[in-house]
Amino acid sequence: MALTKNERRLRIKNRIRKVVSGTEARPRLAVFRSNKEIYAQIVDDVNGKTLVASSSRDKDIAAKGNKVEVAALVGKSIAEKALKAGVATIAFDRGGYLYHGRIKSLAEGAREGGLKF
Question: Record's CDD domains (predicted)?
Answer without folding.
Answer: Ribosomal_L18_L5e (cd00432)
